[in-house]
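Now produce a polypeptide, keeping tokens residue-aligned:
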Amino acid sequence: MSKSYPNTSLYINGKWRPADSGETLDVINPATEEVIGNVARAGKADLDEALEAADKAFTKWKTTSAFERYNILRRAAELLRKRVDIIAEIMTIEQGKPLAEAKGETMVGADRIDWMAEEGRRTYGRVIPARADGIYQFTVKEPVGPVAAFTPWNFPLNQILQKVPAAIAAGCSLIVKGPEEAPACCAELAKVFEDAGLPAGVFNLVFGVPSEISDYLIPHPTIKKVTFTGSTAVGKQLAAKAGEHMKLVTMELGGHSPAIVFEDADLEVALNVLSFNKYRNAGQVCVSPTRFLVHESIYDKFVDGFKTASRNVKVGDGLLPDTTMGPLAHDRRLAAIDDFVKDAVKHGGTVETGGERSGNKGYFYEPTVLTNVPNEARIMNEEPFGPLAPITPFKSFDDVVEEANRLPYGLAAYAYTNSNKTAEAIGSALESGQVSINHHGLAMPETPFGGVGDSGYGKEGGMEGIEAYLQTKFITQANI
């Protein structure tokens, strides 16, 4: 057991405690494969307590003024910034990403809290002109109620903060099912909200077996809204379960983002931005560029440049100062990435660089560039979620649009061109919830984030983010 890594308890109704059963789950450092601590495994009794706490807290929190909610959230943002070094180190130890990325995630998380604090003060209704004298018609925005939030391990802090500040600012209470792989940094976030003065029961944090928790929380009558970030397969199951009980949902699911490089693109910019974002968090990013579609006239130059960039990535323990890419999050990802590469090669693909596990300890995998991969290969149809870059040439605008839109996913898409005409055309043609042209400009606190098709529905971030936790009530009144 690590002396510096804290074990994680459940946070329910403002109190830290072990699971009612006393059960725990191991937490593993992906850089060393060592068990470094444990996290409490919530059961039915724990969830019942969390449900009661969230329900009771909601009755008071929904009537708390928007300005008071704002003040608490702003205090939380400042506390999070002050604790960035502690939280980031914990995140790197349990999740694997380089320390600089962990710090960046924490600081952006604080910005998300700030943004939603402000949005919460502006949940305006409106007056609607009536058709007769003496009639007053207006709308008001009201919080939807207690929320069940399910968040993943790839951005353990950020994904909670895509949901929690918006819900709190709107007047909702929450039960968050955090990631068992990276629980301790999430616990530090709960302490931030506690120290900022958030009333007990507004934010509850539990861990455990995901299917057990979702099966119990989603149908429960206390829960009025379900929000989930994760794979498309699991998201469809949870959305179906929520639909059976008429629960409001936000689903931020997987993607398979095309990255299109036209013949007139600034090749240096495209290579620098795309390679950096390909290997950020070891490729374990839902908006990571995953299908590189490059015009045939510059294809060889792009492949050579991407190979060079990939070989320059320093793979290692995220705590080491020269590391630029850490390990995959767990052994399941290591096996999955290796299977993608073997399948691509079996279908005729060529490994230009990488393609192997790095070392024999820790879940490290080499940054990998693939060419000649046909559409029949799994990697061209399933989200790889790892440091793999299949690069394919295209001939015409129509050809690349057809390929980019071939899959049912539509979370993010990228394009590089020096032509305003082409930029406008590709932005319109891509079937995606988000399109970024000539830079990587997604997932800012002030911008909406979400996909279409199998990538889910609903938005997080921006002014749209808080709307997901509000309902519009129409009131009409006649003078007596």
